[in-house]
Protein: Phosphate-starvation-inducible PsiE family protein
Amino acid sequence: MWRENSVDLKLNRFYEMSARAVLSLLIIAILLAIVAGVGCTLYDLRLVFNQEFHGAFKQIMVDLLTVLAIIEVLRTALAYSTEGRVKVTYIIDTVIVTVLTEVMAFWYKEIDWQEVAMTISLVLSLALIRIVAVRFSPAGSRKEL
Structure:
């Protein structure tokens, strides 16, 4: 019995150390992606002088929203490293930012009303899920106790 607990404890410790190592590498990769995204956005500022404003601002806006989505992924990774669990609200925020990037792209192309309706329903359902996740959060129920 004692030997089984010792093996379980060692396996659990190995898993935690491995997960932390992989998560640290992931966080470094995400930070590098953010730096690259900011650099790409700054580089695309040259488009304001070389192209029409409409196309240049579209590219810059998409770059910025992409960097914001990556920042949300970083928030999720950092929350997992500190709390040991993934917060659903961070994942939903990431998806909402990504969907809003697509909505911004809708401004620059002609789309069917069905696609607009599906996108609106997706954003509304994500907002509803986020409200429910915050309302019935495990951290919130622990505070009530």
